[in-house]
Structure to design on (431 residues):
């Protein structure tokens, strides 16, 4: 794609990067064929190629974002299936980040939009505030009918949620077999409160495989939620805090890996090196953290699964999170590990398409999210499984919150099944 950025703009490292990304696009349109919103809407501007043109026009002309720009860029899930389909290696993820930031800097949203986006950007990344809001949701569950429709579904889900187990606290969790590895772990902001059992299963699995697990008090939200809302300052504050905390721990004693069990977070942590590449103080430290970061599935595949013990013949339908299969290119490993535990694994039709969760997308773009949710649930039900497994708490929540398609089988995190399959307890949601 031809670009015409003036030299004065190219001196900005972010604009230079955007220019390089734009020039790598050859207009082929393969991305559109894999884009969930393009397949739903049929509008060129609701596909990656159209959005690339919108971002190019905004940045190249250094003009404020228009309502048309905002409408179509907001509709992007950020699922990154276009990056898997692209033969030219266009880094759509980074280009969208520049587009979102430009919108937040140059466009004034309605009062209600600003209120909701700021609310999400403050509450979700902060476990203490989020926990408080969960309590309020339970107390005032009778008032959720007065909320806007896009917030009502989420309020209904959290107000009726039966949270099992206590939150994992900062500590050293020692291995129960020969000590082989020392790893840090990101417990997640939303996940740690909505489903503490995922972190517990992760720690048990790692301890069983010879890992000392370090959960650090100063590690905060990974920054993904704020980043995807275009809130750069808030996102970078979380990112730098985490880099400092993990680097300090690594200086005390070597870390072999940083384990992430929420794939959306993992995609962002692996990108810390790029995000802070121009920061003199943090660039090398952030790069080191990105290199250490691995998804729990990736790590167990690397060191080898052992001690499988499942005797029940159960069929697992595996829902691949976009951030895992497209963002981190981890596709076959979850299937192989589940099969190694003795599960029969089936994959739904259109496995590469998003379920519609996409961070805060299911709140901000409720109608499109529900259409994708319905398609995904239908494809999973057609598999006739005993269990649905996925690697991201957002996907788990999305599959459980449909008002019209109620699943009759449990939805669990993949790591819960791997924990059970190697000698841990049966996932509570299956009891």
């Amino acid at each position: 794609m031809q670009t015409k950025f003036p030299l004065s703009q190219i001196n900005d490292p972010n604009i230079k990067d955007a220019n390089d990304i734009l020039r790598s696009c050859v207009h082929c349109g393969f991305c559109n064929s894999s884009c969930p919103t393009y397949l739903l809407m049929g509008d060129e501007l609701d596909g990656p190629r159209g959005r690339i043109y919108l971002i190019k026009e905004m940045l190249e002309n250094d003009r404020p974002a228009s309502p048309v720009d905002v409408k179509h860029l907001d509709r992007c899930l950020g699922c990154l299936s276009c990056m898997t389909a692209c033969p030219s290696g266009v880094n759509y993820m980074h280009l969208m980040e520049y587009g979102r930031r430009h919108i937040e800097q140059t466009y004034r949203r309605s009062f209600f939009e600003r209120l909701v986006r700021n609310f999400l950007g403050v509450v979700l990344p902060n476990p203490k505030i989020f926990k408080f809001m969960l309590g309020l949701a339970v107390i005032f569950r009778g008032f959720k009918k007065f909320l806007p429709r896009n917030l009502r579904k989420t309020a209904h889900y959290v107000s009726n949620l039966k949270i099992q187990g206590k939150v994992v606290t900062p500590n050293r969790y020692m291995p129960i077999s020969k000590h082989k590895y020392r790893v840090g772990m990101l417990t997640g902001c939303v996940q740690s409160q909505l489903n503490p059992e995922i972190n517990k299963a992760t720690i048990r699995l790692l301890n069983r495989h010879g890992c000392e697990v370090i959960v650090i008090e100063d590690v905060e939200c990974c920054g993904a939620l704020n980043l995807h809302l275009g809130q750069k300052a808030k996102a970078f504050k979380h990112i730098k805090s985490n880099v400092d905390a993990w680097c300090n721990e690594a200086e005390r004693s070597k870390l072999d890996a940083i384990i992430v069990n929420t794939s959306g977070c993992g995609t962002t942590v692996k990108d810390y090196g790029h995000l802070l590449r121009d920061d003199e103080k943090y660039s090398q430290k952030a790069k080191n953290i990105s290199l250490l970061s691995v998804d729990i599935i990736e790590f167990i595949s690397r060191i080898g699964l052992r001690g499988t013990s499942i005797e029940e013949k159960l069929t697992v339908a595996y829902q691949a999170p976009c951030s895992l299969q497209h963002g981190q290119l981890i596709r076959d490993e979850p299937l192989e590990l589940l099969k190694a535990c003795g599960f029969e694994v089936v994959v739904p039709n259109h496995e590469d398409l998003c379920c519609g969760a996409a961070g805060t997308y299911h709140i901000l773009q409720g109608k499109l999210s529900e259409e994708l949710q319905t398609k995904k649930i239908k494809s999973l039900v057609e598999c006739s499984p005993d269990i649905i497994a996925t690697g991201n708490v957002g996907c788990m929540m999305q599959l459980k919150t449909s008002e019209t398609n109620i699943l009759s089988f449990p939805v669990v995190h993949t790591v819960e099944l791997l924990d059970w399959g190697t000698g841990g307890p049966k996932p509570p949601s299956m009891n």
